[in-house]
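Dear Dr. H.,

I hope your travels went smoothly. While you were away I took the liberty of generating a structure for the chain from your last submission, since the lab meeting agenda had it listed for discussion. I wanted you to have the full record in hand beforehand rather than looking at slides cold. The sequence, exactly as received, is reproduced here:
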Amino acid sequence: MPRPAVRLEAFDAVRHEPLLATWLRRPHVSRWWGDPETVLRDVRNRPEQGGHALIVADGSPVGYLRWQRASRADLDEAGLTEIPDGAVDIDILIGEPAQVGRGIGPAALRLLLGRLAAEADVPLAGMVTSVENHAAIRAYEKAGFHRLRQFDDPAYGRCWVLVADLRPRA
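The corresponding predicted structure, in token form, is as follows:
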């Protein structure tokens, strides 16, 4: 099966929220994203230092991507003192079960990493996922992330921190 054509489309909370709500309630998503109402509240209140996009594959919406600058205080509180200031935290989901495992997630992440790399003040992008979320870890690594280290998250247990260095190569 050929790889789908993937693009990121501006996320419109009014128009796209019902679709996102459906995805957040699907078992393959809710296991990793938690309470849908909490996520939707966060979607409505995106920070100024972040953004979000609808992931579109072959013309159909299939997932959601969000990102935000990680504050120094939040990083330090999580014990992630090695993450530099200006780093961006990313979350992704593929909501359509039939589209999981088709390379859409890594393609969407590469598109976002390209955008972030064009911003001179973004040194690093990071993602966190449960050590048990093997499919996500493989997808993140295909997109250019590498495992930095593990830590214990109060809500999700043992997690990997994966990072992609966006600093220009000398």
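Two observations you may find useful: The helical segments are 13-24, 27-33, 36-44, 72-77, 104-117, 134-142. The chain has a mean pLDDT of 91.

With kind regards,
E. W.
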